[in-house]
Write a structure and sequence with these properties.
The protein has one domain: Up-down Bundle (Ferritin), CATH 1.20.1260.10. 51% of the residues lie in helices and 2% in strands. It has a two-stranded antiparallel sheet with strand order 1-2. The longest helix is centred in the last third of the chain and has 26 residues. The N terminus and C terminus are likely disordered.
């Protein structure tokens, strides 16, 4: 069985971007913001962009799960976690919009990631990816002044916690369960999934809660829309 590692995933993603000639600076592929409502230092801007577009960030994670779903169908925990990643992307986009920071309007990793040869290998690989995501947020949190940018720090902390406390243990459990989980198993591992909603860890309040299996990226729809390759789901 092929075993993917964090390094392998990162190199594949970086290599794919270079091979396909994706340059984030192309104006027609960016969500251009002439001015935001607040200002951010270059370091904070770079941290937000890395969290969204970096090889260990939210766009890349979403594309990884899309690749598995495209190959194997609407299997869990991939669908549920991909829906969560869509909420993570939206939380970061709100911060980027607030500070008037340009970012790619479409996920550049979609279609550039190849799913592993089995669901068990996929679960192992994506567990490595969630570990890498946690380490990325540890590094980014150390780079920004939380007292000056509390909203950015809060979003980073919440997304880090989601990866560490929900996504990582689900993928680890899936790897030990042949690559998939049932909804009941997922709810045991991550109690915040009960009643079909998250615990608000992706956002900053009731209007930014992470709803697993609900809303714009509905459960069973593979979360495909603005961040994927199909029709956008309507807000629920």
């Amino acid at each position: 069985m092929t075993r993917f590692t964090k390094r392998t995933i990162t190199l594949v993603l970086i290599g794919s971007l270079l091979a396909f000639g994706i340059v984030f600076a192309q104006g027609n592929s960016w969500n251009n913001k002439s001015a935001g409502t607040a200002t951010a230092t270059p370091q904070v801007k770079a941290a937000l962009l890395e969290a969204l577009t970096g090889p260990e960030g939210e766009y890349a994670a979403y594309a990884m799960y899309a690749a598995v779903i495209d190959k194997y169908g609407d299997v869990e925990p991939y669908v549920t976690i991909q829906n969560a990643e869509a909420r993570h992307i939206e939380a970061l986009e709100r911060q980027l919009d607030r500070y008037g920071i340009d970012y790619p309007s479409e996920n550049p990793y979609i279609g550039k990631v190849t799913a592993p040869d089995s669901l068990e290998a996929a679960a192992t690989a994506w567990a490595d990816g969630e570990n890498a995501n946690v380490k990325m947020y540890d590094r980014l949190l150390a780079q920004i002044p939380a007292d000056e940018y509390p909203n950015v720090a809060r979003v980073f902390e919440n997304l880090r916690r989601a990866s560490l406390e929900a996504h990582l243990p689900m993928f680890q459990a899936a790897a030990q369960n042949g690559g998939t989980l049932t909804l009941e198993q997922m709810q045991t591992i991550a109690p915040q999934l009960r009643n079909g909603r998250g615990n608000g860890h992706a956002g900053q309040g009731p209007t930014e809660r992470e709803h697993y299996g609900q809303g714009r990226y509905g459960h069973g729809q593979s979360g495909r829309g603005r961040h994927g390759c199909g029709n956008k789901q309507q807000e629920g």
